[in-house]
Every structure is written in structure tokens, then in C-alpha cells.
TrEMBL record:
It catalyses: dTDP-alpha-D-glucose = dTDP-4-dehydro-6-deoxy-alpha-D-glucose + H2O. It is an enzyme of class 4 (lyase). Its cofactor is NAD(+). Its EC number is 4.2.1.46. Pfam families: GDP_Man_Dehyd. This is dTDP-glucose 4,6-dehydratase. One of its GO terms (biological process) is nucleotide-sugar metabolic process. One of its GO terms (molecular function) is dTDP-glucose 4,6-dehydratase activity. Transmembrane segments: none annotated. It comes from the Bacteria.
Length: 341
């Protein structure tokens, strides 16, 4: 089987390809990635020489390119993925996340092949109490979440209207190696190592459900092979954490593992102006995955945090190259005027 994986040079996509190729050595993988600011060729240097792996640089919106590729199934990770950037400019989010998904759905329809669409728990919006189930209403609050909700519903519509073999996953917040340093966890680790202020939005009491990236990758693999056509599957870590607690935990871990004074790192915390439309709480019920597909998260939070901090300490070159480029102007635009809530 030849599988087209989109967005494989990003955080989850690169972890997924590494997992997928080792779990299914008989498959061929074509990684289609535009290499936007978030895509990084370095993420997969360890597998680029494998004979069953091919990299194609290109845009998921490019119909001609997609038509020219040979594949038997699609796993679609490619997206603009950062909420804060979608608040600055929603246009690339609508283009890639909605139009790009439509192009891939058309390709799956033409070929009669399965497409797994990687959606997100953010499509549900914010929940005060209880958990999101697959039946919860879709109520996105950011332009990013709205673009993902649109693509998620488009995937459903292609299944209902044309009978395309679609499966959809909605996962909670991932963390682990190769995450771009604009997201909370790697940003905290990088700033702590560089003795820079650690920005916490609002009162820091927003809650996310965190899952180690490899547990998400295992879940996508299982849904791809065993998921019921047309179904949605929630994936979560059963691990709700307040932002401020995560930030403190990471700072303590960096101090311990990086040989830095804990008090000095904790002093770096800076409460800043809140994110507009900031979702207060995400909480996923993954029991359908457990019940029907025998999947569950395997990495405990302490273990996952330890591995993540170790990886960023051991791979400084990887993220220091990223934060020394265009990222500087993004950081200034995002955080320059934010200080002091
Ligand atoms: P990421 O930003 O790290 O990576 C996205 C990748 O997509 C990059 O390699 C980028 O170059 C590529 N890309 C962007 N636009 C493209 C285009 N037009 N054509 C081809 N490639 C393009 O994102 P991520 O955090 O790895 O997320 C991957 C997917 O998982 C996304 O669909 C995201 O919505 C979803 N998701 C993410 C999380 C999370 O916590 N990070 C949780 C649930 C779901
Ligand atoms: O829930 C799944 C989603 O998780 C994915 O669909 C998104 O692609 C992914 O980016 C992530 O979205 P979040 O907005 O939850 O992740 P982020 O890392 O940007 O922020 C996590 C929390 O931390 C959120 O409440 C905002 C807060 N935050 C974030 C940053 C970057 C801060 O307090 N300070 C910061 O500097």
C-alpha cells in the first residue's frame, strides 16, 4: 500500500511518519509538505534515505500536483495550526485548511480511496464542565478552530454525499519532540533556557487536555486501519492541566535537568494580556477509542514532560536555528505589545 501523508515535515506529521514506517515496513510513504515556516526538513533526516519513503515539496491546494501523485490512501495532517497566528491573519488558514482539504477529498473521491482527516478538539469550542464526546456540537471560537471545523464538516459531507471512505480524528493538545517553539510547551522550555520572560496569557487558569505525541500517532494509525467509515474518533490523554501548573512544572524540570536555579526560572513567569476569544477549557472523552479500537494513552504526564524537556535540552541546535530567523519578527509582533496584563 502506498500512503500519501500530508504535513509530514511538521510536529505531529514527522513523529507520525517515523512511527508509521517502523510499524508498517511493507508500506510506501509519500510525504507531501509545503515546508511553510512550521515545516522542517530536519525533522526526518533519520529516515530520508529509506527506499519506501519519498518527500514531495508541494501545496495540498495544488490539484494538478495531487492528481500527478500515485497513492492508495491519504492521511491528512497538513494545516496552518497556530491559534495566535490565525488571530493576526485568517487567510492562510482558510486556504490551506479548508480548500486544501477539499482538494484532497476530491482526490480520495476520484480514486475511491480512504482518507483520514486529522481534525482537533478545538472544533468543539470551550466546555465549562463535563467532557466533549463525538456527539458534542461543533462550536469553534478562533479563526483556526473555525477553519478546522469547516474542513472536518467537509470531510463528513463528502462521506454522506459521495460515499467517500472518510475517518476523522479529533485530538487534544499534543506535546513532545519536534514541536515548533511558538506553542506553549516548547516556548516555555526555550525561554527558560535563554533566561527570557515566560508569557502566560490572562490568569493562567485555562485548561487543556495534554497527550504525548506518540500516543496520538498510535491512535491515528489504529483509526486509519480499523476506524468505521464516516465516523469521528475523539483522542485524548485523560490529562487536564491548568496552563500555570504546566508552566511551573516545565520550569522546575528545566532547572533540574539543565542545572539551573529553580527560583530564578520561576521568576521568569510574566502574566500578559489574554488571547482574544481564549477557550477556557478543553476536555475530551476518548472512551469510544478505548471501547471500540482498544486504544489508550500510554505515556504518563511526568514521564512525557521529562522526555520532552530532555529532548529540547539535547537538541538546542534544532530550535535555536528556528528562533533565530523569521520567528524573531513573529515573536515581537505577538508579544511585544502584550506585556503587563
Ligand atoms: P505544524 O504546524 O507543526 O505542522 C504543519 C505542517 O503542515 C508543516 O510541516 C507545514 O509545512 C505543512 N503545511 C502547511 N500548509 C501546507 C500546505 N498548504 N500544503 C502542504 N503542507 C502544508 O502542525 P501540527 O501541530 O503538527 O498539527 C498537525 C495537524 O494536527 C494539524 O491538522 C492540526 O490541526 C492537528 N492537530 C494538532 C494538535 C496539536 O496539539 N498540535 C492537536 C490536534 C490536532
Ligand atoms: O487542542 C488542540 C489544539 O492544541 C490544536 O488543534 C492546535 O493546533 C494546537 O496549537 C493547540 O492549540 P492551543 O491554542 O491550545 O495551544 P498553544 O500551545 O498555542 O496554547 C496552549 C495554552 O497556553 C492556551 O491556553 C494558550 C496558552 N499560552 C500559549 C502561548 C503560546 C500562553 O499562556 N502563553 C503562550 O505564550
Amino acid at each position: 500500500m502506498k500512503v500519501l501523508i500530508t504535513g509530514g515535515a511538521g510536529f505531529i506529521g514527522s513523529n507520525f511518519i517515523r512511527h508509521f514506517i517502523s510499524a508498517h515496513p511493507g508500506y510506501e510513504v509519500v510525504n507531501l509538505d509545503k515546508l511553510t515556516y512550521a515545516g522542517n526538513f530536519e525533522n526526518l533526516t533519520d529516515i530520508e534515505a529509506l527506499s519506501n519513503y519519498t518527500f514531495v515539496r508541494g501545496d495540498v491546494c495544488d490539484r494538478q500536483l495531487i492528481d500527478s501523485l500515485k497513492f492508495d490512501a491519504i492521511i491528512h495532517f497538513a494545516a496552518e495550526s497556530h491559534v495566535d497566528r490565525s488571530i493576526i491573519d485568517a487567510s492562510p488558514f482558510l486556504q490551506t485548511n479548508v480548500i486544501g482539504t477539499q482538494v484532497l477529498l476530491e482526490a480520495a473521491r476520484k480514486r475511491g480511496c480512504r482518507m483520514l482527516h486529522v481534525s482537533t478538539d478545538e472544533v468543539y469550542g470551550s466546555i465549562e464542565t463535563g467532557l466533549f464526546t463525538e456527539e458534542s456540537p461543533v462550536m469553534p471560537n478562533s479563526p483556526y478552530a473555525a477553519s478546522k471545523a469547516s474542513s472536518d464538516l467537509l470531510a463528513r459531507a463528502f462521506h454522506e454525499t459521495y460515499g467517500v471512505d472518510v475517518v476523522i480524528t479529533r485530538c487534544s493538545n499534543n506535546y513532545g519532540p519536534y514541536q515548533f517553539p511558538e506553542k506553549l510547551m516548547p516556548l516555555v522550555i526555550a525561554n527558560a533556557i535563554g533566561s527570557k520572560a515566560v508569557p502566560v496569557y490572562g490568569d493562567g487558569m485555562n485548561i487543556r487536555d495534554w497527550i504525548y505525541v506518540i500516543d496520538h500517532c498510535r491512535a491515528v494509525d489504529i483509526v486509519f486501519h480499523k476506524g468505521r467509515s464516516g465516523d469521528v474518533y475523539n483522542i485524548g490523554g485523560k490529562n487536564e492541566q491548568r496552563n500555570i501548573d504546566i508552566v511551573k512544572k516545565l520550569l522546575v524540570e528545566v532547572a533540574r535537568k539543565g542545572g539551573m536555579p529553580e527560583e530564578r526560572l520561576l521568576d521568569l513567569i510574566l502574566f500578559v494580556k489574554d488571547r482574544p476569544g481564549h477557550d477556557r477549557r478543553y476536555a475530551i472523552d476518548p472512551s469510544k477509542m478505548e471501547r471500540e479500537l482498544c486504544w489508550g494513552p500510554e505515556t504518563g504526564f511526568d514521564d512525557g514532560i521529562a522526555k520532552t524537556v530532555e529532548w529540547y535540552l539535547a537538541n538546542r541546535g534544532w530550535w535555536q536555528r528556528i528562533i533565530s530567523g523569521e520567528y524573531q519578527s513573529y515573536y515581537e509582533m505577538q508579544y511585544g505589545k502584550r506585556a503587563g496584563s
